[in-house]
Design a protein that fits this description.
InterPro entries: HotDog_dom_sf (IPR029069)
Largest sheet: 11 strands, antiparallel
CATH class of the largest domain: Alpha Beta
GO molecular function: hydrolase activity
CATH topology of the largest domain: Thiol Ester Dehydrase, Chain A
Number of strands: 11
Keywords: Hydrolase
Radius of gyration: 16 Å
EC number: 3.1.2.-
Order of helices and strands: EHEEEEHEEHEEEE
Structural class: mainly beta
CATH superfamily of the largest domain: Hotdog Thioesterase
Protein name: PaaI family thioesterase
Helix content: 10-25%
Strand content: 25-35%
Length: 237
């Protein structure tokens, strides 16, 4: 006996782009992970191909997997991860906000229109600009959550996934450097509230060939872990 997959049609609005012309990988990962339902458990999303913007896509979800398709092309798939994701250490909001002055993207940004870390207008993009936290080996930014990203039920998982994404790349990148997100495991422990202030923290955890590895976290002002992620990036050939 087989169980038919539930299907949902969706499009990614142009606003949520990462690299020019394609969707932000963290936004895609958060969307596909959410299809598996329930917060608290970790979900790993593998990105197989760039997700186009303003295009009708098909999201399929079953009990233990979810996948995103454009016609016959598989774009992303998600599976549960039976472990708690490690998180970088807490950085106070004031220290995280201070670290933004060292954001490498100020001196050269490969994707300046990225919804998450791009130089977008306040209220349009998330404006998460991670810079080094002195003496820690971490990068961090102070995230002031715009009301414009909230839905009827608060800030959706797609936005949380996006916020966890780019910081893991900037833990590796210098000015003008870039890579593409290949995999993101996400674990959301609590809610993110519009107009809230959070610390977004990242650290590099190694590299292998063209792969770069990193971890990230979102913390409330009192140090409560709100969400964590583990990322794999693929550098250009």
């Amino acid at each position: 006996m087989t169980t038919a997959a539930l299907q949902t049609v969706l499009t990614v609005p142009e606003r949520f782009q990462g690299p020019k012309g394609i969707a932000n990988g963290g936004w895609v990962a958060g969307t596909v992970a959410e299809a598996l339902g329930g917060r608290g458990a970790a979900v790993e999303v593998t990105l197989h191909a760039p997700t186009p913007l303003d295009t009708e896509l098909r999201l399929e979800h079953m009990a233990n997997c979810a996948s995103l398709h454009h016609g016959d092309k598989l774009l992303a798939e998600a599976i549960p991860v039976h472990e708690d994701l490690k998180a970088p250490e807490f950085v106070r909001f004031a220290d995280a906000a201070r670290a933004e002055a060292g954001f490498p993207g100020w001196r050269g940004h490969a994707f300046p229109d990225c919804f998450v870390c791009g130089l977008r207008a306040p209220g349009d993009g998330l404006r998460i600009f991670p810079g080094p936290v002195e003496g820690t080996g971490l990068v961090a930014a102070g995230w002031r959550v715009p009301f414009a990203v909230a839905g009827e039920d608060g800030v959706p998982d797609a936005i949380v996934g996006a916020a966890l994404d780019c910081v893991t790349g900037w833990a590796h990148f210098g000015p003008g450097e870039s890579a593409l997100l290949g995999r993101l495991a996400v674990q959301i422990h609590g809610k993110v509230y519009p107009d809230g202030t959070y610390s977004v923290v990242g650290r590099a955890t190694g590299s292998e060939g063209r792969k770069l590895f990193g971890e990230s976290a979102i913390y409330d002002q009192d140090g409560t872990l709100v969400a964590a992620a583990r990322a794999t990036w693929i550098t250009p050939r």
